[in-house]
Amino acid sequence: MIVIKSCIESPSFEWRPAFEDGEIGSPTRAARIVRSLGEIGIRDLRSPASWAEAFEGRLQQDEGGLELCSQIGPANYRPFSFFNTMHRVSSAVGRVWVRNRDQGEKKRCYGTGFLIGPDLLITNNHVIRDTKDASHTTVWFGYQADEHGRERHCGAYACQELLKCSPEGKLDYSIVRLNGEPDFHYISLRRHGPKPTPNKDSVIIIQHPNGGPLKIVMEDSLVRSAWKPYIQYEADTENGSSGAPVFDFAWRIVALHHRSVMGKNQGIDIRYILDDASEVIP
To answer: Which fold has domain 82-282?
Structure first.
C-alpha cells in the first residue's frame, strides 16, 4: 500500500510513501505500482521532495484540478452483471451424495455436479460409476451457508437413470436423469467457451469441496496447459469438487473438473464430452 497524506484546504501538501512488509502484495503488483508512479514523475519513492515535485507538476498539467484516483496496471473492473450471472449459473450446481458406495470401504461418496438440461445432470464417472451408484445418489441444489454460517439447501433430487458415461481413464463423465425437474437454471454445453490460452486465461470453478456448502474459486486460477482432452489450472479444489463446472470469465463452460495431477488441478475439455455424448445432450 502507498499511503498519501494531503490537506486540500491547505496550500501545502505532504506526500509520504510508507512501505510495510506484506502491504504491497505480490512482486508483480509492486512492480506495477512502481512503474505507474514513475510515469507520473515520481522517481525516488523514498524521497518526499520527489513526491512533492511530481505532485506540483500534475497540478500545473491538469486544468481540471487534482486527480485523486487512477488505474494501476490492467483494468480489474467487473460489471455488476458479472455477479448476477454468477448467482444464476451457481443455481445449476449441486452436491452429489452417493450412499452405500462400498461395503468395507467408505460408505458414501461426495462430489459436485451441474444441470445441463431441465432434468439432466453431469458429474464425474469416478463419482457415479454405474447404475448401482446412480440408484443410491441424491443431489442437493442450493446447498449454501449464509453470512452467519447457517447451512440450507433448496431441494434434493434422486437419480432416475444413468444415460451415458465414460470411464475415469478416458473422459471421466456420467450423465444422469433426475427424478423430477429442478426449477433452476441449467448450463448448456453447446454454448461452451473457446479453448483457454495457457499462461494467459484464468478460470472460475463453482464446487462443493469436501461435500460442504457451495464455494467459488476465481483467484489464482491461471490456466497452465491445454492439451487434448485436458485443461490444467491452478484453481483450488478439494475432495468433493470432482464434477464441478469450470468457466471462463465470460461465464462460458470450458471444462468438467475431475482431479489433481502432479500439483495442478485438471478438467476435461467440455468439447470432447459434447462430441462423445451428443445424442443425450440437449
So the answer is: Thrombin, subunit H (2.40.10)
